[in-house]
Design goal:
Helix content of chain A: 25-40%
CATH superfamily of chain A: HUPs
Pfam families (chain A): ETF (PF01012)
Number of domains of chain B: 3
Domain Electron transfer flavoprotein alpha/beta-subunit N-terminal (chain A): 19-200
GO molecular function (chain A): electron transfer activity
CATH class of chain A: Alpha Beta
Low-confidence stretches of chain A: 1-6
Number of strands of chain A: 11
Structural class of chain A: alpha/beta
Protein name (chain A): Electron transfer flavoprotein beta subunit
Shape of chain A: globular
Structural class of chain B: mainly alpha
Strand order of the largest sheet of chain A: 9-8-7-10-6-1-4-5-11
Low-confidence stretches of chain B: 643-652
Shape of chain B: elongated
Helix content of chain B: 40-55%
Number of helices of chain A: 8
Order of helices and strands of chain A: EEEHEHEHEHEEEEHEHHH
Oligomer: heterodimer
Strand content of chain B: 5-15%
Radius of gyration of chain B: 29 Å
Mean pLDDT of chain B: 92
CATH topology of chain A: Rossmann fold
Distance between the termini of chain A: 61 Å
Largest sheet of chain B: 4 strands, parallel
Organism (chain A): Halomonas organivorans
Number of helices of chain B: 27
Strand order of the largest sheet of chain B: 4-3-5-6
């Protein structure tokens, strides 16, 4: 480390990582999106990256968590939580205890509830801004981060956000590096006790394997290769969508409810 | 005057050589410990030299005889010179023998000089170019100083000028042959080579009085239980001391370079240069003094290393670039060809282990394949439950149902590959035609771990191996038969160290046995010319060259051999994870192999390996078709001539619905 380190304050980043689940075999693994979040954090200049996980310490969880350590980390903070606990309060508490400037997470967990709501709820609790679907963190200057957000079909939007903030990564973020066995084995799972909030609703839930959702068929009436290409490249349009701006919350909610009923999501 | 000068010269040279030898040995001792039987090894050394080493050298008759004359003459002359001129025991026959020895050495050195006139590109130049002159200087001067000793010339022949001139030539000869041997000159190969033979890491590969040596090709396992043990080789000093000694034995003959498929394809690998780089690293310095062919596309002089510095830098350049290590197909052509018995492949995999296990830097698709192996037990990331889909209609007996069988058919990951499924179906057909009692593991089978191990991921290999061994231990069978030489090698040669001892047969070996037992009946071959491609993992790794040829003979096929066949077979480019790491070169290895096939004029090339099939079939505009031996046999099957065979088959309890071609 160079002596000027003391003058430049490193950017404190905490990456929230979860135990993933392989889509074919269901084995525990490092979750793809969380691994991308780690990779994104590693790519930020002058940053000090910490890993944090809230959950158990069972053998398969541990091997999955060690997968993140294998990306070149000495330690991972493990906020110990029993099965069925709501990890949100514990995470919020741990982050408030030693607040980083930037929290990076994946979009959603690969198992459990996997609602993708955690970053938003966490941001609400901490009172921080949240930015979803990042492709890159371009720079951080004077407490303001310049972020590149991924939009559909390769579009990008540059955003500036005041830190501290919570961001989530998109599939367009750089692919995670290989997890190496040596650092994974040596790394330390630093367990810290966390407050336990039992998720009572979760206990009553019944889980079952997800069914494949029906997909809207795209009917292509193309006579030429050019038409077929255009059809393949075109965005899937549901048609009949509407953009609501400057409406009262009730109106918006009504519109959403109406759409959900039309789509058969709610009956 | 010579009488006083000669002993001084000789003992001075010997003394300096002793100091050099100690310094050299200290370089080797930087390596990690590796226990060897010292006395036994030294005792076995002459036999290893005279039998095993000359078995390799003898493939080139001229060079072999040259070496016998030069080296034999030198050893005899050196010993006698100490006795005659050093200790003054000139009396009687010794002097005459010394004359003969130095004359023999001179004749040998003339042949060395002749080869050095227009040296093939595989030979190193630089200091090696002066070696024939040094050999001549030594042999001639020893001859000349011995003439007065035996009385052929008067004691005071010539003037003191002549004597001084003679001494000067002798000093040159002694300098190269005795001093240079221990201080890193070209003759180092004799000193280090002899000790390398004595303390070789794979003593079992050498013949003993009891019989031939056996192929010792399985990689050595890393101890993963000991957390402080290094994961592979990061620095030159991470090699074992006898590996370092082996590198130092290199004579830079370049036979490895001439055989290396990656070098021929213009990929940045040259086995000779790699070994020399290890020597550079061991002693510390730059590779600028290297005088042989460089790694294709990489100029000499840009790399340097130290014994305790990294071999491969995370960024920038160190001793060797990572892509050099990843170019290797682990085909063992270099090891097979090396007269100094250097184990190149062990060293390369040792260094790959560090890159994968510590750096996490397996190139290209490597990381993805390893992740798949961890998550799905097969390199393609396919559903483990879909492993038997190819055989949905074959009603293959499962070990889980049967519990025991004579033959356990190991399918390998080719079960997911549509091309290899044709081979597997053919093999099943052949086994059924011969009424073999066999069963498969089905979905309980996992990848053998071959690719993981060659890519350096010893942890994943050991995990797969342990689980496979646990599965295999549940069932009773006499032997494992597989159509994948890679699985064959791993199951047969590498699972032993993990606690699984099996009798494994390649399908060609097993089919040859079935033919010999008269259990297969085939119609005569009507196709065109056929050649046979030896898979590296069947031939060089396991010494099986005959069985596939016997099977083809039994089919009535006369094999038109390629120039490079048998132990010199050229790799298809598919081994060692090379298609996964995919280091670019100027040519493709399988293209070169299909050219070899084309040169025989054969319309069909018989293979015995799913990797070879895939690589050779991937060649565009090939002149020959690619067929697995099992496919050829299955295509030629016919009913047994007598009725009794048919009745026999009725009684067996296997399913009666048999596929008809």
């Amino acid at each position: 480390m160079r002596p000027e380190q003391s003058t430049i304050q490193p950017l404190e980043i905490t990456v929230l990582v979860s135990v993933g689940r392989h889509p074919t075999t269901g084995r525990a693994r490092r979750a793809d999106q969380d691994a991308r979040a780690v990779e994104l954090a590693r790519g930020v200049a002058d940053a000090r990256v910490q890993l944090m996980h809230a959950g158990g310490k069972e053998a398969d969880c541990e091997s999955a968590l060690r997968g993140y350590l294998g990306m070149g980390f000495d330690a991972l903070t493990l906020v110990e939580q029993p099965e069925g606990a709501d990890t949100l309060p514990a995470l919020a508490e741990a982050l408030r205890g030693a607040p980083p400037q930037l929290v990076i997470t994946g979009e959603r967990a690969e198992q459990g509830e996997g609602s993708g709501l955690l970053p938003y709820l966490l941001a609400e609790r901490l009172g921080w801004p949240v930015v979803s679907g990042l492709a890159a963190v371009e720079s951080v200057e004077n407490g303001v981060a310049t972020l590149l957000q991924a939009l559909p079909r390769g579009q990008r939007r540059r955003l500036k956000v005041r830190l501290p903030a919570i961001v989530t990564v998109d599939g367009a973020a750089p692919a995670p590096r290989q997890s190496a066995f040596g650092p994974a084995r040596r790394g330390h799972l630093a367990a810290v006790p966390g407050g336990v909030t039992v998720d009572e609703a979760w206990a009553n839930w019944e889980t079952q394997p997800a069914r494949k959702r029906p997909k809207r068929l795209k009917i292509v009436k193309a006579a030429s290769a050019r038409d077929r290409f255009k059809a393949a490249a075109a965005k899937a349009e549901g048609g009949g969508g509407q953009v609501l701006t400057d409406v009262a919350p009730e109106q918006g909610a009504e519109a959403i409810l109406k759409l959900l009923k039309e789509e058969g999501v709610l009956r | 005057m010579l009488d006083t000068l000669l002993p001084i010269l000789i003992f001075a040279a010997l003394g300096l050589a002793a100091i050099g030898a100690i310094r050299r040995a200290r370089l080797w001792r930087q390596g990690r410990p590796s226990p060897v039987p010292v006395i036994k090894g030294l005792a076995a050394m002459p036999r290893r030299y005279l039998v095993d080493l000359h078995h390799v050298v003898g493939r080139d008759k001229v060079m072999s005889n040259t070496h016998v004359a030069t080296a034999g003459g030198f050893v005899a002359a050196a010993v006698l010179m100490v006795l005659v001129h050093g200790l003054g025991l000139a009396a009687g026959v010794l002097g005459w023998v010394l004359l003969a020895a130095s004359a023999t050495m001179f004749v040998g050195s003339c042949f060395v000089a002749r080869r050095r006139r227009q040296p093939p590109s595989r030979l190193s130049k630089g200091p090696w170019m002066r070696l024939p002159k040094s050999l001549m200087a030594f042999s001639l001067s020893v001859f000349a100083i011995t003439l007065p000793a035996v009385g052929l010339l008067p004691e005071d022949f010539g003037s003191w000028i002549l004597a001084l001139a003679l001494c000067a030539v002798l000093v040159w000869g002694l300098g190269e042959m005795v001093f240079g041997m221990a201080w890193g000159g070209p003759m180092k190969h004799a000193f280090a080579g002899a000790l390398h033979l004595a303390f070789h890491r794979r003593a079992e590969r050498f013949s003993t009085q009891g019989g031939e040596g056996r192929p010792s090709t399985g990689l050595k396992a890393l101890n993963l239980d000991d957390e402080s043990a290094p994961l592979g080789v990061e620095k030159p000093s991470d090699f074992t001391w006898n590996q370092l000694l082996g590198f130092d034995a290199c004579v830079q003959c370049g036979r490895c370079e001439a055989m290396c498929p990656a070098f021929a394809a213009g990929q940045p690998l040259n086995p000779k240069k790699l070994i020399q780089d290890m020597v550079v690293g061991m002693a510390g310095g730059s590779d600028a003094a290297y005088a042989g062919s460089p790694y294709p596309g990489k100029p000499v002089g840009e790399h340097q290393g130290t014994p305790h510095g990294p071999i491969v830098a995370r960024e920038g350049k160190a001793l060797v670039d990572a892509e050099t290590l990843w170019s290797c197909t682990t085909c063992r052509a270099c090891v097979e060809e090396c007269p100094m018995m250097i184990e190149h492949v062990d060293a390369i995999v040792d260094m790959r282990r560090f890159l994968t296990l510590e750096h996490g830097n397996t190139p290209n698709k490597g990381a993805e394949v390893l992740d798949n192996l961890i998550a799905t037990d097969n390199p393609g990331g396919f559903d483990p439950g879909a492993r038997m889909h190819w055989a949905a209609d074959l009603e293959l007996p499962l070990m889980a149902d049967r519990g025991e069988a004579e033959v356990l058919l190991w399918l390998g990951d080719g079960a997911y590959d549509m091309r290899n499924q044709r081979t597997l179906r053919s093999l099943v057909k052949v086994l059924r035609a011969a009424d073999v009692d066999f069963a498969v593991l089905g979905n309980e089978e996992r990848d053998s771990g071959d690719v993981a191990r060659r890519l350096g991921d010893e942890a994943t290999f050991q995990s797969l191996a342990k689980r496979n061994i646990a599965t295999l231990s549940k069932y009773r069978f006499q032997r494992i038969v597989t159509c994948d030489p890679h699985s064959f090698h791993v199951l047969g040669n590498e699972y032993g160290e993990m606690g699984g001892q099996y009798e494994v047969r390649h399908h060609s070996t097993y089919i040859a046995e079935l033919f010999e037992a008269g259990r297969l009946h085939v119609k005569p071959w009507k196709g065109g010319g056929v050649t046979y491609h030896d898979p590296c993992y069947l031939g060089r790794y396991n010494g099986e060259y005959e069985a596939p040829r016997n099977v083809l003979k039994a089919l009535g096929i006369e094999v038109a051999e390629m120039e490079r066949s048998g132990f010199r077979s050229r790799c298809c480019g598919g081994g060692g994870g090379a298609p996964i790491t995919d280091i670019p070169g100027e040519r493709r290895i399988p293209d070169m192999r299909m050219n070899d096939v084309g040169e025989t004029g054969a319309e069909l090339v018989a293979v015995g390996c799913p990797q070879c099939t895939a690589m050779l079939e991937g060649v565009v505009d090939a002149t020959a078709e690619v067929r697995d031996i099992a496919e050829l046999v299955a295509g030629a099957l016919t009913e047994a001539p007598e009725a009794s065979a048919g009745a026999d088959r009725q009684s067996s309890n296997r399913p009666q619905a048999v596929e008809v071609a």
